[in-house]
Amino acid sequence: MESGRLSSTEQALIRESWQKVSSNLLQHGIVLFTRLFDLDPDLLPLFQYNCKQFSSPQECLSSPEFLDHIRKVMLVIDAAVTHLENLSSLEEYLTNLGKKHQAVGVKVDSFSAVGESLLFMLEKCLGTAFSPDVREAWTRLYGAVVKAMSRGWDARKEGE
Known about the structure:
A hairpin with a 2-residue loop joins β1 and β2. Helices cover 69% and strands 2% of the residues. α1 (8-21) crosses α7, α2 packs across α4 (64-82) and α2 packs across α6 (110-126). It has seven helices and two strands. The protein is globular, with a radius of gyration of 16 Å. The model has no long low-confidence stretch (mean pLDDT 90).
């Protein structure tokens, strides 16, 4: 994750937009995951807590365990925003996070729907402030995060 991937303008756009989102991470995270389950309902079975299978996205989204997962996802995004100048400092963490996601059955392809859901959430939160430049900056940041996480899949293949 080269630190030069995002321009200073893109970094400023991301920081400014995230400031509005970060005022209520859980609420915005619920928007993100609601959209994710709309886009890819087949992801729902991946979320099981205490061997309990959720019968609907609404049941999952109201579970305390899943709300904790949402908080963690939003904190990972927050960490990426905090480290925009030095995204490579998150490389090992994100690769390991990728390994954990692969271990529970997440496919790399699913990150496309997650990215769409992230952009949807940002658009809902920011309204007219979600300009094409803001969208592009977030798309580039998310691409860098996914690239690092996908190395977790590659690392598992090498270790097998």
